[in-house]
Specification:
433 residues, alpha/beta, Rossmann fold, Alpha-Beta Plaits, 3 domains, six-stranded mixed sheet, 42% helix, 21% strand, binds guanosine-5'-triphosphate, binds magnesium ion
Length: 433
């Protein structure tokens, strides 16, 4: 049974100073994560890991110091920003007599709280179970251990009471369900890609991706000042200059060292990013760690094989900047305020340029009954002229880019009478002869 705990969680944070990265950066992000998980931060202890203790990670002196503060502040959860082994977690819990979790577990808990759709819940459950399956060790029997972390909500909690074999069975079953969803998404993506380019919003969590998605598409998706507000991918068509169109997607935000369990479980969601034609990397200029975040996002992009896709960097939230900021300003680096609509026109032009080359003029003939094809031509090109040339035939003069014309020719039955494309194809043929 899941035991839901209504009263709020009081967390004590243990920040282990590592040699890489700045401590302020780690601090701020870690506190935001804890708050986003719905816990109050009652105290922080900094630990220098010069003396590494295998059994409990930290030494006796530090344990005593933390215990005193935890008792004083009535904390009921300790969160380490450092990866703890299962036995370290267990030993620390025995010392402190309250729950101890690490950063990975904290992020998994946030995801569990945010998951709304069936797919999202399955993905989170898979990540939780994968994490748990490596942590089932002897002596790990008390049920207290098998509850969730903060808030104790989320999918998969009942499964946490099962043993290793049952967990493996459940992992297998979820994986097979997710594989079906992945195949479905691949099919949908293929048919979407037939006619339109995919533009994916990516960025650090809370950078403003969903706000920008709403501004660009006139959508009303939930944007919140919370980490990982978005989990499931969203898609909408966007209108670009010169009557061009594309599909925009918004997905889960990234974070430094996104747990590998989550990357694996969210494969089908992340594939929407790795299969995009253009990425819009949303950066929050009001975040003093914007460049560190940018680096972390690029690392995740490289992990999921999306580092070769053309990118437009979008510096968001410029409305919050009192002074002009010194950033590159060109077609690939655009300053905007997704909230106030500043710079959006520039961004649309830049996307338009990135996804489609300049159009060519083509003369297309279709049968008068081909209403679906006619609608598609309208959606993909600028129709300059349309004439009935006999009782059955409609002749359309359109402006379209070569790639889209080729795609249309491949998938729908149209007769391209004259276009630069044909001239090019003829030239190509001649060259081959
Ligand atoms: N001032 C200001 N706030 C913004 C702007 N864009 C987004 N925000 C705020 O930033 C917060 C996060 O916005 P979201 O759009 O949810 O961010 P996200 O990148 O989708 O975040 P996740 O889905 O959690 O990864 C919200 O409180 C927004 O209102 C902006 O241009 N200016
Ligand atoms: Mg979002």
């Amino acid at each position: 049974m899941i035991e839901l705990k209504e009263k709020s969680t009081n967390a004590h944070l243990v920040i282990v100073k590592s040699s890489k990265g700045s401590i302020e950066y780690d601090n701020e992000e870690f506190i935001s994560l804890t708050l986003s998980a719905g816990a109050a931060v009652k105290g922080i202890t900094y630990v220098d890991l010069r003396k590494f203790v295998r059994r409990s990670l930290i030494g006796k002196g530090k344990i005593k110091e933390i215990k005193d503060e935890v008792d004083l502040n009535c904390a009921d959860l300790i969160v380490f920003n450092y990866s703890l082994s299962a036995s370290q977690e267990r030993n620390l819990e025995q010392y402190f007599k309250i729950r101890v979790i690490d950063r990975t577990r904290l992020i998994l808990d946030i995801f569990a709280q945010r998951a709304r759709t069936n797919t999202g819940k399955l993905q989170v459950e898979l990540a939780q179970l994968t994490h748990l399956s490596t942590r089932l060790i002897r002596g790990w029997t008390h049920l207290e251990r098998q509850k969730g972390g903060i808030g104790l909500r989320g999918p998969g909690e009942t499964q946490l009471e099962t043993d290793r074999r049952l967990i493996q069975d459940r992992i297998k079953s979820i994986k097979s369900k997710l594989q079906k969803i992945r195949t479905q998404r691949q099919t949908t993506r293929k048919s979407r890609n037939k006619v339109m380019k995919n533009v994916a919003l990516v960025g650090y969590t809370n950078a403003g991706k969903t706000t920008l998605f709403n501004t660009l598409c006139g959508a009303n998706a939930m944007a919140e000042d919370k980490l990982f507000a978005t989990l499931d991918p969203l898609f909408r068509p966007i209108n670009l200059p010169k009557n061009r169109k594309a599909i925009l997607s918004d997905t889960v935000g990234f974070i430094k060292e996104l747990p590998s369990e989550l990357i694996e479980a969210f494969l089908s969601t992340l594939e929407e990013v790795s299969n995009a034609d253009v990425l819009i990397h949303v950066l929050d200029v009001s975040d003093r760690f914007m460049f560190e975040n940018k680096k972390s996002v690029n690392e995740v992009l490289s992990t999921i094989g999306a580092d070769k896709i053309p990118v437009i960097n979008v510096y968001n939230k410029i409305d919050l900047m009192k002074e002009k900021i010194n950033l590159i300003n060109d077609a690939n680096n655009i300053q905007i305020s997704a909230q106030d609509g500043l710079g959006i026109e520039n961004l649309l032009h830049s996307i338009s340029k990135k996804i489609k080359p300049e159009p060519i003029t083509a003369l297309i003939r279709i049968n008068i009954n081909q209403s679906k094809e006619r609608a598609l031509i309208y959606s993909q090109s600028s129709v300059i002229q349309e004439n009935m040339i006999d009782n059955n035939l409609l002749e359309m003069t359109v402006e379209i880019d070569i790639k889209s014309l080729k795609k249309m020719k491949k998938y729908i039955n149209i007769d391209v009478v004259e276009s630069k494309l044909q001239v090019l194809e003829q030239k190509l043929k001649k060259n081959q002869e």
